[in-house]
DNA sequence: CCTGTCAGGGTTAGCCAACA
DNA sequence: TGTTGGCTAACCCTGACAGG
């Protein structure tokens, strides 16, 4: 659960991908996080006569190209609307994160973290101004800007330049027809590619004080811009800093249960420092939030023992109980937990307390969380037999204000920490699209199916993404003949793949990593080709010397080209 | 190389106890 | 009675490993 990286979105690695018909058309392949994402069971997906796929859409062609080239044309553009979100088909709780990650047909009872750690995916929007950067940084190459920041890594640049797409035997004319328009655009694309490279370098070199211009940054802007007037007024009144996106939490039943009155945001054990919330806290706040976790355990054990003793002989314990009560009172005064003010969409204020619970491995917000639920119509009283069938997520945006309680104790010049909590039905949300981490979230109902899907998704991802070098910032254009719905899914996947590529690159485009990826991807692509009757036409950037009648639309666009031959 | 199985780990739901 | 703190079991995913 490494913090998402903010990709330089201006440049695109280009990949011409003729996707195999189905197997991957439904799974959420994509970013590295998505590799494991469950997808449609191969059995259902592979058949060419898949009922879910229109006959004429068997072959889809994907072209990854610089985002600025995506105007009009094949339906992609830099400002194209965020990929449509797949509607949650099941009544089960599926968070925003879960949504896109999980296939519609898979309503798992329990799912992995629904917390959307897009924090950094907003171009670090969530963290860019943070005092405490995430433990995992994107700067694999060391200090300063990430690789290709101030200047593109020469090796990468060379790699990109010598990339060529080579098409082997192609009996399908349709591809040629598709590629035709592509080739016609070659000159501008080359230029754009260079522009893109420069843009990537510039973007990387630029301190991320602003959200990146595209993708997640756009999403971030959307979130912030869509704050209600009341909320804005409230923030102004508090003299709050600009809200920054933290994460998205898909509300589970336990989160909306009024009897529990708490919101749990779990953090993977051992990776608490990767949790976006963790980095919101100053040192002082961290101490408060995590106050004496060990003591609590010890006291608990003691309590347990005492309980047992109580069970054994109640009479003797009475004095002890009194003592305990007194101690508890003292503990109450010292009760750990950070006072956190929450604001809802309407600007209403809720005083909550945030604590990190080692037992649950996550942050628990208590206090007026129940009030929030009631005011926002999210409350469920399980005792009354109510069921939580909605799929609602909440977005957390952090801000600070000196006018909040305990601002002085925060240890932060901007004051105490507060959260803007925006909720919405997942069906309305589009957040999943950009979530690089959502891949982790979706647990399929069937693990076996999952695996198969997983493998498919891997193939797809690898097929669409190739060398890590190519991952140097991307945008995706899809040229497809498939139906819109299908296209949307594909779009999502490619977007995720791109994100994954970006992430890989950000993690530090190490040679080993590249080599590993390259070999893996090539193998996966070949496998996919065999399985789906496609042709692995050429793996870009591998030797690159073979002849081919098709030149890459953009130099430096690394990819595995898989042509599905109908 | 592919597939199936197993073990480990993470997340969530449910429950209970203590306290105000 | 409602709130809060905490534990634990169940579920499910993921990775590793072995067999075909």
UniProtKB/TrEMBL annotation:
Keyword Nucleus on entry: yes
This protein's record includes keyword DNA-binding: yes
Keywords, sorted A to Z: DNA-binding, Nucleus, Transcription, Transcription regulation
Low complexity composition bias: residue spans: 8-19, 463-477
Record localization: Nucleus
Biased composition, class Basic residues, residue ranges: 299-309
One MF annotation (Gene Ontology) recorded for this entry: DNA binding
Coiled coil: none
Organism domain of life: Eukaryota
GO cellular component, one term: nucleus
InterPro entries assigned to the protein according to its UniProt record, in alphabetical order: DNA-bd_pseudobarrel_sf
Region (Disordered): 1-151, 295-341, 405-490, 507-566
PANTHER family: OS05G0237600 PROTEIN, OS08G0282100 PROTEIN
Protein name per UniProt: Uncharacterized protein
Organism of origin: Oryza nivara (Indian wild rice)
């Amino acid at each position: 659960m490494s913090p998402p990286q903010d990709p330089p979105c201006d440049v695109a690695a280009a990949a011409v991908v003729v996707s195999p018909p189905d197997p991957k058309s439904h799974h959420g392949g994509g970013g590295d996080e998505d590799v494991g994402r469950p997808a449609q069971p191969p059995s259902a997906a592979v058949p060419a006569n898949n009922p879910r796929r229109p006959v004429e859409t068997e072959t889809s062609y994907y072209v990854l190209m610089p985002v600025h080239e995506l105007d009009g044309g094949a339906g992609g553009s830099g400002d194209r609307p965020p990929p449509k979100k797949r509607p949650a088909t099941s009544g089960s709780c599926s968070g925003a994160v879960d949504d896109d990650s999980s296939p519609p047909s898979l309503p798992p009872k329990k799912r992995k973290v629904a917390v959307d750690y897009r924090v950094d995916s907003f171009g670090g929007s969530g963290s860019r101004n943070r005092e405490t950067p995430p433990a995992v940084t994107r700067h694999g190459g060391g200090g300063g800007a990430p690789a290709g920041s101030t200047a593109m890594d020469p090796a990468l640049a060379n790699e990109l330049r010598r990339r060529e797409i080579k098409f082997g035997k192609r009996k399908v004319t349709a591809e040629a027809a598709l590629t035709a328009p592509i080739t016609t655009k070659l000159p501008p694309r080359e230029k754009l590619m260079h522009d893109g490279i420069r843009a990537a370098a510039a973007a990387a070199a630029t301190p991320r004080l602003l959200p990146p211009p595209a993708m997640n940054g756009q999403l971030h802007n959307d979130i912030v811009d869509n704050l209600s007037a009341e909320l804005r007024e409230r923030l102004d009144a508090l003299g709050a800093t600009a809200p920054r996106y933290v994460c998205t939490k898909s509300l589970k039943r336990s989160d909306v249960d009024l009897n529990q009155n708490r919101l749990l945001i779990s953090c993977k054990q051992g990776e608490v420092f990767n949790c976006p919330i963790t980095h919101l806290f100053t040192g002082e706040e961290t101490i408060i939030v995590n106050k004496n976790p060990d003591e609590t355990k010890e006291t608990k054990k003691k309590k347990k023992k005492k309980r047992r003793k109580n069970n054994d002989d109640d009479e003797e314990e009475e004095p002890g109980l009194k003592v305990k009560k007194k101690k508890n009172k003292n503990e109450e005064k010292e009760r750990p937990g950070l006072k956190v003010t929450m604001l809802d969409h309407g600007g209403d204020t809720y005083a909550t307390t945030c604590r990190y619970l080692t037992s649950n491995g996550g942050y628990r917000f208590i206090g007026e969380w129940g009030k929030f639920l009631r005011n926002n119509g999210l409350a469920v009283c399980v005792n009354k037999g109510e069921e939580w069938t909605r799929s609602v997520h909440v977005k957390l945006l952090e801000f600070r204000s000196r006018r909040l309680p305990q601002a002085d104790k925060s240890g932060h010049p901007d004051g105490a920490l507060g959260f803007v909590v925006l909720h919405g039905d997942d069906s309305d949300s589009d957040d999943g699209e950009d979530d690089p981490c959502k891949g982790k979230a979706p647990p399929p109902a069937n693990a076996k199916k999952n695996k198969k899907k997983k493998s498919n998704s891997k193939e797809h991802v690898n097929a669409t993404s190739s060398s890590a070098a190519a991952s140097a910032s991307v945008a995706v254009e899809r040229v497809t003949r498939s139906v819109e719905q299908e296209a949307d899914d594909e779009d999502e996947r490619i977007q995720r793949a791109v994100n994954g590529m970006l992430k890989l690159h950000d993690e530090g485009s190490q040679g080993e990593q590249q080599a590993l990826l390259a070999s893996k991807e090539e193998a996966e692509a070949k496998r996919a080709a065999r399985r789906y009757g496609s042709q692995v036409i050429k793996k870009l950037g591998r030797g690159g010397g073979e002849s081919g009648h098709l030149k890459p639309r953009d130099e430096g666009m690394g990819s595995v080209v898989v042509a599905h031959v109908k």
